């Protein structure tokens, strides 16, 4: 298992060539949108290749690799992903944390010792919508509430249009 984790870690943490991970601030300081800054080569000018080229600025794209390709983040696959939306979800006040797993299937899997070596060392307690609340993307969109996902997409569009 540990050998597989080390191999997996090496695969996921490899940075892409000629690029680096950067973040742009979202609609609030705790929302950092991951982007990849891609270095471009100069464009040859004059067709002969012996002159200096025209400089091309970096090109930015949305980076879906999460923290895995960030050289400043220590990766531990057994701990799971960081809780990037935790504050935002709590501030909305429309969910509550459960005391534990609520489904019989989830409870049975948690007790199954044959899968113990596959579990994360830390499993957070699940959340659910409070009575009378709805926590779907569509629910928020119909009320004009911009969700974290829409914030990210908006900033990706803005940054992409700068290229």
Question: How does this structure look, described?
Answer:
- The structure is a single chain.
- This protein has 163 residues and is α+β, with helices and mostly antiparallel strands.
- The radius of gyration is 22 Å and the shape is flat.
- The strands form two sheets. It has a three-stranded antiparallel β-sheet with strand order 1-2-3, with helices on one face.
- Helices cover 28% and strands 15% of the residues.
- It has one domain.
- The model has no long low-confidence stretch (mean pLDDT 81).
Brief overview, please?
By secondary structure, the chain is of the alpha+beta class. It contains five helices and five strands; from the N terminus they run αβββαβαβαα.
């Amino acid at each position: 298992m540990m050998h597989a984790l080390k191999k997996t870690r090496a695969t996921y943490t490899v940075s892409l060539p000629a690029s680096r991970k950067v973040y742009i601030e979202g609609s609030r300081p705790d929302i950092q949108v991951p982007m990849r800054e891609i270095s471009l080569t100069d464009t040859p000018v004059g067709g002969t290749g012996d002159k200096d080229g025209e400089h091309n600025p970096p090109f930015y794209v949305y980076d879906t690799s999460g923290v895995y390709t960030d050289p400043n983040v220590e990766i531990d696959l057994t701990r799971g992903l960081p809780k990037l939306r935790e504050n935002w979800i709590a501030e909305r006040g429309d969910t509550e944390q459960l005391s534990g797993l609520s489904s019989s299937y989830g409870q049975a899997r948690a007790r199954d010792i044959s899968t113990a070596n596959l579990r994360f060392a830390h499993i957070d307690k699940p959340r659910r919508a409070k009575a009378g609340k709805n926590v779907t993307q569509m629910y928020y969109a119909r009320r004009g509430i911009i969700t974290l996902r829409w914030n990210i997409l908006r900033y990706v569009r803005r940054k992409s249009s700068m290229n």
